[in-house]
Amino acid sequence: MPAEPSTFGFTRGSDYYRKGGKVMLSNTTVSKLHEIKLSVMAASFQKQLDTTVSAELGFGERFDLLVDAEWTSRKNNRLKRLDSAFPGACLEDISTTRTGSWTRL
């Protein structure tokens, strides 16, 4: 029978980053997320650490929230970038008729 995680000195759950001077670990995690250009995920992670509501969620649910925040931010940034590149563009303006002929390379 495998030993309990506490036997190995591991702590689990949301208190992992707050117990026994582990706050430093969360700071390095946040800085690493910024370094790999996951700023929204870093901000969401910091927000999760600061609130007690996320303590009730499991790892999968918390990770889903982090990924969803980063994904939504990237999609919104892409839409803003496209909107500024093509102001006033809409689907009705797209021409679907074929102009020209196909040529083989």
Structural description of this entry:
Helix content is 50%, strand content 0%. With 105 residues, the protein is an all-alpha fold. Helix 1 (23-35) packs antiparallel against helix 2 and helix 2 (39-50) runs antiparallel to helix 3 (59-85). The longest helix has 27 residues, at 59-85. It is elongated. The protein starts with 22 loop residues before the first helix and ends in a 20-residue tail after the last helix.
> Oligomeric status of the shown chains?
single chain
How does the helix and strand content classify structurally? Answer: mainly alpha
Radius of gyration: 23 Å
Major sheet:
none
End-to-end Cα distance: 65 Å
Which word captures the global form? elongated
Write down how many β-strands occur, each being a DSSP E stretch of 2 or more residues. 0
Proportion of residues in helical segments: 40-55%
User: Could you spell the SSE succession in H and E letters?
Assistant: HHH
**Counting H and I runs of at least 4 residues, what is the number of helices?**
3
Mean pLDDT across every amino acid position: 77
Unreliable stretches covering 5 or more consecutive residues: 1-8, 10-15
What portion of residues belong to β-strands?
A: under 5%
